[in-house]
Protein backbone atom coordinates (compact mmCIF):
# COMPACT_ATOMS: atom_id res chain seq x y z
CA UNK A 1 0.00 0.00 0.00
CA UNK A 2 1.44 3.36 -1.08
CA UNK A 3 -0.95 5.75 0.65
CA UNK A 4 0.91 8.16 2.98
CA UNK A 5 -0.75 7.76 6.38
CA UNK A 6 -0.25 9.80 9.53
CA UNK A 7 1.75 8.27 12.36
CA UNK A 8 -0.18 9.73 15.28
CA UNK A 9 -3.53 8.33 16.38
CA UNK A 10 -6.10 11.09 16.97
CA UNK A 11 -9.53 10.96 18.55
CA UNK A 12 -12.59 13.00 17.75
CA UNK A 13 -16.21 12.87 18.77
CA UNK A 14 -19.38 13.07 16.73
CA UNK A 15 -22.27 15.02 18.16
CA UNK A 16 -25.30 17.15 17.51
CA UNK A 17 -26.02 20.46 19.21
CA UNK A 18 -29.47 22.01 19.46
CA UNK A 19 -28.59 25.42 20.91
CA UNK A 20 -25.73 27.81 21.52
CA UNK A 21 -25.52 26.50 25.08
CA UNK A 22 -25.16 22.94 23.75
CA UNK A 23 -22.45 24.07 21.35
CA UNK A 24 -20.50 25.84 24.10
CA UNK A 25 -20.75 22.85 26.44
CA UNK A 26 -19.70 20.41 23.72
CA UNK A 27 -16.77 22.55 22.59
CA UNK A 28 -15.54 23.16 26.12
CA UNK A 29 -15.80 19.46 27.02
CA UNK A 30 -13.96 18.40 23.87
CA UNK A 31 -11.11 20.81 24.63
CA UNK A 32 -10.96 19.95 28.32
CA UNK A 33 -10.84 16.21 27.60
CA UNK A 34 -8.21 16.53 24.89
CA UNK A 35 -10.21 15.47 21.86
CA UNK A 36 -8.68 16.52 18.56
CA UNK A 37 -11.87 17.13 16.58
CA UNK A 38 -15.63 17.49 16.69
CA UNK A 39 -17.72 16.02 13.88
CA UNK A 40 -21.37 16.19 12.89
CA UNK A 41 -23.51 13.94 10.71
CA UNK A 42 -26.00 14.89 8.03
CA UNK A 43 -29.47 14.04 6.78
CA UNK A 44 -32.23 16.18 5.37
CA UNK A 45 -34.86 13.76 6.69
CA UNK A 46 -33.96 11.07 9.22
CA UNK A 47 -35.51 8.65 11.69
CA UNK A 48 -34.63 11.01 14.57
CA UNK A 49 -34.33 14.82 14.67
CA UNK A 50 -31.11 16.18 13.13
CA UNK A 51 -29.96 19.73 12.40
CA UNK A 52 -27.86 21.08 9.54
CA UNK A 53 -24.21 20.02 10.06
CA UNK A 54 -22.49 23.12 8.68
CA UNK A 55 -24.47 25.47 10.90
CA UNK A 56 -23.79 23.31 13.94
CA UNK A 57 -20.05 23.27 13.21
CA UNK A 58 -19.98 27.04 12.78
CA UNK A 59 -21.48 27.41 16.25
CA UNK A 60 -19.08 24.89 17.78
CA UNK A 61 -16.08 26.56 16.14
CA UNK A 62 -17.02 29.87 17.71
CA UNK A 63 -16.46 28.35 21.15
CA UNK A 64 -13.36 26.26 20.37
CA UNK A 65 -11.32 27.89 17.60
CA UNK A 66 -8.41 25.48 18.07
CA UNK A 67 -10.43 22.34 17.38
CA UNK A 68 -10.59 20.60 14.04
CA UNK A 69 -14.18 20.31 12.85
CA UNK A 70 -15.58 17.99 10.22
CA UNK A 71 -18.63 16.45 8.59
CA UNK A 72 -19.05 12.69 8.85
CA UNK A 73 -20.50 12.75 6.32
CA UNK A 74 -22.25 15.49 4.33
CA UNK A 75 -24.65 14.10 1.73
CA UNK A 76 -23.38 16.25 -1.09
CA UNK A 77 -25.54 14.72 -3.90
CA UNK A 78 -28.64 16.13 -2.19
CA UNK A 79 -27.41 19.68 -2.95
CA UNK A 80 -26.01 21.68 -5.83
CA UNK A 81 -22.23 21.92 -5.26
CA UNK A 82 -21.86 25.60 -6.21
CA UNK A 83 -23.67 27.06 -3.17
CA UNK A 84 -22.15 24.29 -1.04
CA UNK A 85 -18.70 25.45 -2.17
CA UNK A 86 -19.53 28.94 -0.88
CA UNK A 87 -20.85 27.62 2.45
CA UNK A 88 -17.85 25.38 3.03
CA UNK A 89 -15.37 28.11 2.09
CA UNK A 90 -17.12 30.41 4.54
CA UNK A 91 -16.95 27.79 7.30
CA UNK A 92 -13.25 27.29 6.58
CA UNK A 93 -12.74 31.00 7.29
CA UNK A 94 -14.84 30.91 10.45
CA UNK A 95 -12.86 28.00 11.90
CA UNK A 96 -9.46 29.29 10.87
CA UNK A 97 -8.76 26.60 8.30
CA UNK A 98 -9.42 23.66 10.63
CA UNK A 99 -12.16 22.03 8.55
CA UNK A 100 -12.32 18.53 7.05
CA UNK A 101 -15.16 18.18 4.57
CA UNK A 102 -16.36 14.60 4.70
CA UNK A 103 -18.83 13.68 1.96
CA UNK A 104 -20.90 10.65 1.03
CA UNK A 105 -23.93 9.47 -0.89
CA UNK A 106 -26.23 8.03 1.82
CA UNK A 107 -29.22 6.37 0.23
CA UNK A 108 -30.49 4.34 3.16
CA UNK A 109 -33.34 6.86 3.44
CA UNK A 110 -34.43 7.29 -0.20
CA UNK A 111 -37.29 9.57 0.83
CA UNK A 112 -34.88 12.44 1.48
CA UNK A 113 -33.61 12.14 -2.09
CA UNK A 114 -37.16 12.25 -3.40
CA UNK A 115 -37.87 15.31 -1.23
CA UNK A 116 -34.84 17.08 -2.71
CA UNK A 117 -35.80 16.18 -6.28
CA UNK A 118 -32.67 14.06 -6.81
CA UNK A 119 -32.99 10.53 -8.25
CA UNK A 120 -31.40 8.22 -5.70
CA UNK A 121 -29.85 6.18 -8.51
CA UNK A 122 -27.81 9.22 -9.60
CA UNK A 123 -26.20 9.87 -6.23
CA UNK A 124 -22.83 8.29 -7.03
CA UNK A 125 -22.51 9.98 -10.41
CA UNK A 126 -23.46 13.33 -8.89
CA UNK A 127 -20.81 13.00 -6.19
CA UNK A 128 -18.20 12.08 -8.82
CA UNK A 129 -18.95 15.36 -10.59
CA UNK A 130 -19.51 17.53 -7.53
CA UNK A 131 -16.11 17.02 -5.91
CA UNK A 132 -14.15 18.48 -8.87
CA UNK A 133 -16.64 21.37 -9.00
CA UNK A 134 -15.86 22.22 -5.38
CA UNK A 135 -12.14 22.16 -5.99
CA UNK A 136 -12.41 24.35 -9.08
CA UNK A 137 -14.38 27.01 -7.23
CA UNK A 138 -12.09 26.87 -4.20
CA UNK A 139 -9.14 28.07 -6.29
CA UNK A 140 -10.60 31.57 -6.12
CA UNK A 141 -9.92 32.09 -9.83
CA UNK A 142 -12.17 32.19 -12.90
CA UNK A 143 -13.42 28.67 -13.66
CA UNK A 144 -16.18 27.02 -15.65
CA UNK A 145 -17.62 23.53 -15.73
CA UNK A 146 -19.11 21.45 -18.51
CA UNK A 147 -20.75 18.44 -16.88
CA UNK A 148 -23.86 16.30 -16.93
CA UNK A 149 -25.39 17.68 -13.73
CA UNK A 150 -23.70 20.98 -12.81
CA UNK A 151 -22.58 22.96 -15.88
CA UNK A 152 -21.87 26.65 -15.36
CA UNK A 153 -20.12 29.45 -17.29
CA UNK A 154 -16.97 31.20 -16.17
CA UNK A 155 -17.38 32.11 -12.52
CA UNK A 156 -15.07 33.43 -9.83
CA UNK A 157 -15.95 32.59 -6.24
CA UNK A 158 -14.12 34.68 -3.66
CA UNK A 159 -12.70 34.64 -1.15
CA UNK A 160 -11.00 31.30 -1.54
CA UNK A 161 -10.94 29.09 1.56
CA UNK A 162 -8.20 29.60 4.13
CA UNK A 163 -6.72 26.21 3.29
CA UNK A 164 -5.02 26.40 -0.12
CA UNK A 165 -7.16 24.56 -2.64
CA UNK A 166 -9.91 24.18 -0.06
CA UNK A 167 -10.50 21.85 2.88
CA UNK A 168 -9.46 18.23 2.44
CA UNK A 169 -12.33 16.18 1.04
CA UNK A 170 -12.65 12.86 2.84
CA UNK A 171 -15.21 10.35 1.62
CA UNK A 172 -17.47 7.85 3.29
CA UNK A 173 -18.77 4.58 1.93
CA UNK A 174 -17.61 0.99 1.76
CA UNK A 175 -18.83 -0.15 -1.67
CA UNK A 176 -16.28 -0.83 -4.39
CA UNK A 177 -17.54 2.23 -6.28
CA UNK A 178 -17.02 4.45 -3.23
CA UNK A 179 -13.52 3.08 -2.62
CA UNK A 180 -12.52 3.58 -6.25
CA UNK A 181 -13.80 7.17 -6.06
CA UNK A 182 -11.62 7.79 -3.01
CA UNK A 183 -8.60 6.40 -4.81
CA UNK A 184 -9.25 8.66 -7.80
CA UNK A 185 -10.06 11.91 -6.02
CA UNK A 186 -10.33 11.60 -2.24
CA UNK A 187 -8.07 13.10 0.41
CA UNK A 188 -9.14 10.57 3.05
CA UNK A 189 -11.59 7.85 4.03
CA UNK A 190 -14.15 7.94 6.84
CA UNK A 191 -15.38 4.39 7.30
CA UNK A 192 -18.53 3.31 9.06
CA UNK A 193 -19.94 -0.08 10.08
CA UNK A 194 -16.90 -2.11 9.04
CA UNK A 195 -14.61 -4.49 10.92
CA UNK A 196 -10.86 -3.90 11.15
CA UNK A 197 -10.36 -6.62 8.55
CA UNK A 198 -12.79 -4.91 6.20
CA UNK A 199 -11.03 -1.60 6.80
CA UNK A 200 -7.67 -3.03 5.77
CA UNK A 201 -9.23 -4.54 2.64
CA UNK A 202 -10.93 -1.25 1.78
CA UNK A 203 -7.74 0.74 2.24
CA UNK A 204 -5.92 -1.64 -0.10
CA UNK A 205 -8.64 -1.11 -2.73
CA UNK A 206 -8.29 2.66 -2.37
CA UNK A 207 -4.54 2.39 -2.79
CA UNK A 208 -4.88 0.30 -5.94
CA UNK A 209 -7.38 2.77 -7.39
CA UNK A 210 -5.00 5.65 -6.66
CA UNK A 211 -2.17 3.80 -8.40
CA UNK A 212 -4.37 3.10 -11.43
CA UNK A 213 -5.32 6.79 -11.59
CA UNK A 214 -1.67 7.82 -11.39
CA UNK A 215 -2.22 9.67 -8.11
CA UNK A 216 0.46 10.14 -5.48
CA UNK A 217 -1.26 12.12 -2.70
CA UNK A 218 0.99 13.94 -0.24
CA UNK A 219 -1.17 12.69 2.61
CA UNK A 220 -4.24 10.54 3.01
CA UNK A 221 -6.50 10.74 6.03
CA UNK A 222 -7.90 7.54 7.54
CA UNK A 223 -10.78 7.80 9.98
CA UNK A 224 -13.33 5.41 11.39
CA UNK A 225 -16.62 6.31 13.02
CA UNK A 226 -16.78 3.86 15.93
CA UNK A 227 -19.89 3.11 17.98
CA UNK A 228 -18.83 2.86 21.63
CA UNK A 229 -20.34 2.25 25.02
CA UNK A 230 -18.25 1.69 28.13
CA UNK A 231 -19.61 -0.51 30.92
CA UNK A 232 -18.18 -2.99 33.37
CA UNK A 233 -20.12 -5.81 31.67
CA UNK A 234 -20.20 -6.39 27.93
CA UNK A 235 -23.85 -7.44 28.07
CA UNK A 236 -24.87 -4.12 29.64
CA UNK A 237 -22.97 -2.20 26.96
CA UNK A 238 -24.54 -4.25 24.18
CA UNK A 239 -28.03 -3.64 25.58
CA UNK A 240 -27.45 0.13 25.79
CA UNK A 241 -25.95 0.35 22.30
CA UNK A 242 -28.70 -1.80 20.78
CA UNK A 243 -31.48 0.30 22.27
CA UNK A 244 -29.95 3.58 21.08
CA UNK A 245 -28.93 2.46 17.58
CA UNK A 246 -32.19 0.62 16.89
CA UNK A 247 -34.09 3.85 17.51
CA UNK A 248 -31.63 5.94 15.50
CA UNK A 249 -31.78 3.75 12.42
CA UNK A 250 -35.35 2.45 12.80
CA UNK A 251 -34.26 -1.19 12.66
CA UNK A 252 -33.07 -3.96 14.97
CA UNK A 253 -29.40 -3.11 15.43
CA UNK A 254 -28.40 -5.73 18.03
CA UNK A 255 -26.51 -8.03 15.71
CA UNK A 256 -24.75 -5.13 13.99
CA UNK A 257 -23.86 -3.56 17.35
CA UNK A 258 -22.24 -6.78 18.47
CA UNK A 259 -20.25 -7.01 15.25
CA UNK A 260 -19.19 -3.41 14.65
CA UNK A 261 -19.22 -1.54 17.97
CA UNK A 262 -16.54 -1.28 20.67
CA UNK A 263 -18.35 -2.27 23.84
CA UNK A 264 -17.67 -3.22 27.43
CA UNK A 265 -14.80 -2.43 29.80
CA UNK A 266 -12.17 0.15 28.79
CA UNK A 267 -9.54 -2.46 27.91
CA UNK A 268 -11.96 -4.18 25.52
CA UNK A 269 -12.79 -0.89 23.80
CA UNK A 270 -9.08 -0.07 23.53
CA UNK A 271 -8.32 -3.49 22.04
CA UNK A 272 -10.85 -2.89 19.27
CA UNK A 273 -9.21 0.45 18.49
CA UNK A 274 -5.78 -1.17 18.43
CA UNK A 275 -7.07 -3.54 15.75
CA UNK A 276 -8.35 -0.61 13.69
CA UNK A 277 -5.03 1.17 14.03
CA UNK A 278 -3.21 -1.91 12.76
CA UNK A 279 -5.62 -1.84 9.79
CA UNK A 280 -4.63 1.76 8.99
CA UNK A 281 -6.98 4.00 10.98
CA UNK A 282 -5.35 7.16 12.30
CA UNK A 283 -8.41 9.07 13.51
CA UNK A 284 -11.09 7.45 15.66
CA UNK A 285 -14.42 9.29 15.69
CA UNK A 286 -16.12 8.28 18.92
CA UNK A 287 -19.88 7.82 18.48
CA UNK A 288 -21.03 7.33 22.04
CA UNK A 289 -24.19 5.26 22.00
CA UNK A 290 -26.59 4.80 24.88
CA UNK A 291 -28.96 7.20 26.65
CA UNK A 292 -28.48 10.85 25.73
CA UNK A 293 -28.20 11.85 29.38
CA UNK A 294 -25.12 9.60 29.70
CA UNK A 295 -23.31 11.01 26.68
CA UNK A 296 -21.06 13.48 28.47
CA UNK A 297 -20.10 10.88 31.07
CA UNK A 298 -19.33 8.34 28.33
CA UNK A 299 -17.08 10.80 26.49
CA UNK A 300 -15.28 11.54 29.74
CA UNK A 301 -14.79 7.83 30.45
CA UNK A 302 -13.39 7.30 26.97
CA UNK A 303 -10.92 10.16 27.39
CA UNK A 304 -9.80 9.15 30.87
CA UNK A 305 -10.05 5.35 30.80
CA UNK A 306 -9.66 4.27 27.17
CA UNK A 307 -7.32 6.79 25.56
CA UNK A 308 -4.47 6.17 28.05
CA UNK A 309 -4.52 2.54 26.93
CA UNK A 310 -3.96 3.48 23.28
CA UNK A 311 -0.31 4.47 23.65
CA UNK A 312 1.49 7.30 21.92
Structural commentary:
The chain is of the alpha/beta class. It has one domain: TIM Barrel (Alpha-Beta Barrel). Helices cover 43% and strands 18% of the residues. The chain has eleven helices and twelve strands. An eight-stranded parallel β-barrel has the order 1-2-3-5-8-9-10-12, surrounded by six helices. Strands 6-7 form a two-stranded antiparallel sheet. Helix 6 links the parallel strand 8 (169-171) and strand 9. Helix 5 packs parallel to helix 6. The model has no long low-confidence stretch (mean pLDDT 97).
Summarize the structure.
The chain is α/β, with parallel strands linked by helices. The protein contains eleven helices and twelve strands. The protein is globular and about 60 Å long.
The backbone outline, from C-alpha atoms, is: globular
Element order: H for helix, E for strand: EHEHEEHEHHEEEHEHEHHEHEH
Widest beta sheet: strand line-up:
1-2-3-5-8-9-10-12
- N- and C-termini, Cα separation: 23 Å
Main pleated sheet: 8 strands, parallel, barrel
Total helices: the number is 11
CATH architecture level-2 label = Alpha-Beta Barrel
Helix content: 40-55%
Percent strand equals 15-25%
What is the gyration radius calculated from CA atoms?
A: 19 Å
CATH class placement: Alpha Beta
In total, the number of strands is: 12
Amino acid sequence: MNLPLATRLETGLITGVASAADARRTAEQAVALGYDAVWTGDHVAFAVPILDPLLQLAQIAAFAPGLTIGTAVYLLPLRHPVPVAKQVATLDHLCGGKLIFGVGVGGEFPGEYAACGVPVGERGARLDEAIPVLRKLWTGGPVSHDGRFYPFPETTMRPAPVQPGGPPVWGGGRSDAALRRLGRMGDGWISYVVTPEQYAEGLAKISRAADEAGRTPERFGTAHLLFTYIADRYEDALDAATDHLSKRYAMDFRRAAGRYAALGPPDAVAETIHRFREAGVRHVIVDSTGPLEEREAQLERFAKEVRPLLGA
